[in-house]
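Sequence in, structure out.
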Amino acid sequence: MGGNPDDYIRVKEVEQNYAGTKYAFVYANDGNFKLRVFDKNERPLEEALAQEFDINTAIGINDYTMPIQGFADPFATCSFIDDNRIFV
């Protein structure tokens, strides 16, 4: 999913829409929460990063949230409401 060697990335689960054509996950990278949506087609990492949804900016939170060591939960998740809408 990308990142630098010193990043502290946590992701819990990948969700899929009802049709099984789209997938999404929320991850935390050093307090920065992002939503990534993808399908079965491969794409360059740069394109995937450019299309990510920045949750911190959208809801106006800082990057002070840190996961607990040894606990892989990023303290965020998502779920498809229907085939094209996602609840974060």
